Amino acid sequence: MLSVEQAIARLLADAPGPPASEPVPLAAARGRVLAVPLVATVDVPPADNSAMDGYALAAADWRGADQPLPLGGRVAAGQVGGDHTPHTVTRIFTGAELPNGADAVAMQENCRVDDDGVRVLKQPVAGDHVRARGQDTARGANVLPAGRRLLAQDIGVAASVGCAALPVRRRLRVAVVANGDELVEPGAEAGPGKIFNSNRYLLGALLGQWGFDVVDMGVAPDRPEVIAERFSHAADQADVVLSCGGVSVGEEDHVKAVLETIGQLSLWRIAMKPGKPLAYGRIGETPFLGLPGNPASALVTAMIIARPFLAACQGALPAETAPLMVDAAFTAPAPDRQCYLRVRHTGRGLEAYTNQSSGILLGASWADGLAIQPPGLAIEPGTPLQFLPWALLA
């Protein structure tokens, strides 16, 4: 079996090229993936301006705290700074353009105004309380890289350099197929032998949270011919097909055999817990990823394996998911493969949910992240573990 790292590397190397780009207005761009670098076409700020309410002057004109300088003008934000009269001060307000010839701003708290003029009580230095032209962003600078998933602050940066719209990648279309005769929809009656279909909604919510368009293909019963038809139709409708259930080795687990029949299987089974049964391949040119059906396994493999692969298919830069190091506050025996434990970060350290079974989903809502337990490592209180908060996997 491949390690988690080997499996992710294999999938990333096989990721197809990103979707085409499309322009979207700034108000709709948050969470989208930038298709090309954003290059500033203007300086920000466009001219030297004041960082304070006060008085603009040429620093060299100051002759002492007891020597008043006459008031020569006034400029507020939004007005043209004009020319500064030598040996005077100009009343200026925060954000106002610095008059030509002035090179400093004296804070109004450090000035005294009387009939003789304005006394600047503290010797100014050129550049005091001045925001220089281009200090934030210089014309021609690369402001945002291609592949960045745009945050709210990125939208503000784009607006600050005058962009009304941005070229972004079309949202990746991900088809979701749930497999299993036992599945019924929430709201229906779950008779004997039936369970509610949590994975369909879990995966749909995750994919939407990650910025992808979900193509819901419903539930495929445990019949190979129906699964094959559903997978083929999904591959025609989407950029990537994601299924859950039916990837293990039971007599009713048909995903692996179906994929080998209608497409090609490139990877099967990973040395991780939960989530060992996992299939990857292609149906025609469409990537296919089959996740296990146990809900905790589906969640963990979606976050650890599917998420970076789908992001690469979208054309996004790799996310920064460096785990934190936190001491354990529980015990666990050494496993034979890498484990992802549902844990909560408390004042005592990491506490583990009492039942780590792959069929237990409630532990994921109780937890605030995953702790990584390498193979062969027995955990005792105080053992440092890599911790992935849910926020790093969002």
From TrEMBL:
SMART domains: MoCF_biosynth (SM00852). SUPFAM superfamilies: MoeA C-terminal domain-like, MoeA N-terminal region -like, Molybdenum cofactor biosynthesis proteins. Gene3D superfamilies: MoaB/Mog-like domain, MoeA, C-terminal, domain IV, Molybdopterin biosynthesis moea protein, domain 2, Molybdopterin biosynthesis moea protein, domain 3. Residues 175-312 form the MoaB/Mog domain. It catalyses: adenylyl-molybdopterin + molybdate = Mo-molybdopterin + AMP + H(+). Its cofactor is Mg(2+). Its EC number is 2.10.1.1. Keywords: Magnesium, Metal-binding, Molybdenum, Molybdenum cofactor biosynthesis, Transferase. Belongs to the MoeA family. This is Molybdopterin molybdenumtransferase. The lineage of its organism: Bacteria, Pseudomonadati, Pseudomonadota, Gammaproteobacteria, Chromatiales.
